[in-house]
Amino acid sequence: MGQIRKAFRMKVYRGHEAEYERRHRPIWSELEDVLRAHGVTRYSIFLDPATQDLFAYAEIEDEQRWNAIAETEVCRRWWRYMREIMPSSADNSPLSSELKEVFRL
Questions:
Q1: pTM to 2 decimal places
Q2: For the residues of 54-88, what is the DSSP string, one character each?
Q3: Which residue, 16, 36, 57, 73, could crosslink 85 as a Cys pair with Cβ 3.0–4.6 Å?
């Protein structure tokens, strides 16, 4: 089976764009290890500074392994770390909406 391509949108609070970027340069090495161990081969996040929209793109090996990342201690800790600078759910996960791929070259 080939790579699964995922795209989703999140937001960062106005005025926290630079802090969001700073916290990702670099992300915690233990979080990177968890992502790779769960089959994430590529992961990019792009910012539209005019709207504070974040566009995330990931290539993963398996949906079940991708979903399991949310259950890891390091992911939960990362969400708590980020909740003050981006809209989040009650469990601290970032609010996000999955995007449907409609074209690929």
A1: 0.93
A2: EEEEEEES-HHHHHHGGGSHHHHHHHHHHTTTS-B
A3: 16
- Terminal C-alpha separation, the chain: 19
Residue 83 in this model has a pLDDT that exceeds 80: yes
In a 13 Å sphere around the CA of 96, the CA atoms on its Cβ side amount to 17
Residue with tokens 């201690």: 73
Cite the active site residues.
Answer: 24
CATH (one of 3.90.1300.10, 3.40.190.10, 3.30.70.100, 3.40.50.300) for 4-91: 3.30.70.100
